[in-house]
Amino acid sequence: MDFLFGRRKSPEEMLKQNQRALNRAIRDLDRERSKLEQQEKKIIADIKKMAKQGQMDAVKIMAKDLVRTRRYVKKFIMMRANIQAVSLKIQTLKSNNSMAQAMKGVTKAMATMNKQLKLPQIQKIMMDFERQSEIMDMKEEMMNDAIDDAMGDEDDEDESDAIVSQVLDELGLNLSDELSNLPSTGGSLSVAGGKKVEPQAALADADADLEERLNNLRRD
Question: How many CB atoms sit inside 10 A of residue 18's CB?
């Protein structure tokens, strides 16, 4: 049927075809207007020529022709402006149609996505994700505990604590032994002969010795 009656054109194709026709009409009007402007210049030159020759009847006829030519030029200018306005309207329709088609596609895609996004299923997926995350955390913690048990970290810590305690105990015994060997502090001092001399008696003997030496110096 398309072969016999022709394929039905879409709105976009029809707008494009009308747009081409309007552009062609604008070009034809511009071409005709240019011809009339050239003719206007020629008529003005002929009027000047005939006026110099004194042929006033021909000048009047050419003047009427000049008026008609200028009127046609103005009409062509108005027609071109009107056709251009229609072309702009068609271009606006084309743009609006393109925007409508784009919005139609976007709306269809949004409807499809909304159909696929079902809230109960999304909630179930999130709950399953949370449950699986908790299970994974529990398994990871159990594996860490198993690795710690296999590596014996707690036994090593207990053994290291025992060693530290033993060393501290030994240092404590040695320190107490050193402290027990130190002389006790009191009011008496030990001398070379093992005798204990009171501090006041020692000072008296020193004074007596000094006084005896002074007396000897005086006798001398």
Answer: 15
User: Distance between CA 24 and CA 186 in Å, rounded?
Assistant: 133
CA atoms within 13 A on the CB side of 60: 3
The separation between the first and the last C-alpha atoms of the chain, rounded to the nearest angstrom, is 167
> The tokens of 59 are what?
């000048």
Q: DSSP assignment of 75-102, as one string?
A: HHHHHHHHHHHHHHHHHHHHHHHHHHHH
The b/e string for 66-86 (b: 16+ C-beta within 10 A; e otherwise) is beebeebbeebeeebeebeee
**Measured between alpha carbons, how far is residue 193 from residues 47, 185, 189, 190, 213 in Å?**
164, 19, 12, 8, 25
Q: 78 falls in which pLDDT band (50, 70, 90)? A: very high
| pLDDT tens-digit series, residues 149-193 | 766 555 566 666 676 667 666 666 554 555 555 555 544 444 444
Q: How far apart are CA 16 and CA 86, in angstroms?
A: 13
Say yes or no to pLDDT of 8 above 60: yes
Distance separating alpha carbons of residues 200 and 131, to the nearest angstrom? 91
pLDDT digits over 38-73, tens only? 998 998 998 888 888 888 888 888 888 889 989 999
